[in-house]
Input
Amino acid sequence: MGRMREHPRYNVISMRISDEERETLQEIMQTTQKSMSDIMREAMELFKSTWEKPRLENKAA
Output
């Protein structure tokens, strides 16, 4: 039986990428020693932070 996690992740998302994009992702994985999932989570957080910033600035105006 697998180990119990405090915040298990049950959702799986798949996507199609080009050979070039896969090579880039593999280079990032080798350089950072991070998993593909960790890299994609970080990319999503980075996108989220850049996406939210203009929305917050518009609310302040």
